What we know:
CATH superfamily of the largest domain: Aldolase class I
Number of helices: 16
CATH architecture of the largest domain: Alpha-Beta Barrel
Shape: elongated
Amino acid sequence: MLKRDERDNLLKLGRRKRQLIELQEPDLLRDLFPYDEPPRLAFDGISVPMYLPDDFFITDTTFRDGQQARPPYTVEQVVELYKMLHRLGGPNGVIRQCEFFLYRKQEREAVERCLELGYKYPEITGWIRARKEDFQLVKEMGLKETGILMSVSDYHIYLKLKKTRREAMEDYLDMARTAIEAGVKPRCHLEDITRADFHGFVIPFVQALMDLADESGVPIKIRACDTLGYGVPWSEAALPRSVPKIIHALRVECGVPPEQLEWHGHNDFHLVIANSLAAWLYGCAAVNGTLLGYGERTGNAPIEGLIFHFIALKGEMFGIDTTVISEIADYYRNVIGDEIPDNYPFVGESFNVTRAGIHADGLLKDEEIYNIFDTTKLLNRPPRVGITDKSGLAGIAHWINAKFSKKIDKRHPGVIKIYEWVMKQYEEGRTTSISDKEMMELVKRYLPELLEGGDV
């Protein structure tokens, strides 16, 4: 049927019913996924249009998928991190929802403690396996929505579940009906969608879910899960790997409204952020991520990265307090005891530290030359210089100025003496950076007036 698109006022083809294609043997798409070699990337040359939703946002799975990649959080740690997610997302609910496991006593206690805070955002939701008895857990916790695992690739349907496509589809639809009858909104997690037969299974299945949503009046959600990170962000790539085409097909051919669509990515091929942006840009309202990108294997989309890309697309801060990102990183380091790689974007100890002399010289003249944005204002992290044999006089001067809030010139005799000491270290075979403690000793020796509070 024809339907007018309110955005461009053009008549568009509505969803056409697709029939499930049953197979005797699984279609493992071996031309794309040979297994004994890296996967292939096919293009069909067909583009689909961008369609950024009016209301797009972030959802969190730190305490579900993120929890699978690390030792269990304590109840207190969950509560404190949830508070910081609330503050980071701000009053407009940029971080809209937060999902939790419900199986362990400690997990349920954490949910209860977070619910007691009374925050509107992030809304607390559950996650369960495709078992009817698990709905009792959701009801007991008083949650309005839960994720339900629904694997859609033949790898999972035939090889893991040992079912046919029709059996799997009927079981999944039955689970969705059970959720609705229990008064719980189902969020259907389409596992391994980037290895699935889109026209033979995914589209007919999701169309059936949308029929159920229409019949029941319950807005069933669809989470597209790139379980092994095979997704790619290019519109002209072919299904099932093209994220733009996945979102376009779910939205246009299946009739899923953008606000009921969610993308969940993994970083196996280093594309998790690019794919998340593609999901937003092509019509998916929600993108799922975790704090610091913790998640199964290579992790999920890091929420701190999603926050900055959300601001870029939105064109304004939209109530977000980005300084909370640094507080979250400090909490992981100092309370939870995690090590964050020094070069990790936005939160690593050295993410805005330069060790190149020419860069340090630029920072001395104007920090905008070599700093991504005002990291002091947005993250409480002033740009710094790490001292090595590549830092030069400018690097040493910048280190001193940042430490003592001075404007010392790189040609100052004390700076030159420190530089000579540094270069001698490397001429003698040193292979490590000069530590802040060593630099303080050098300042004490060659620029004692700085420690005494005098002028230089």
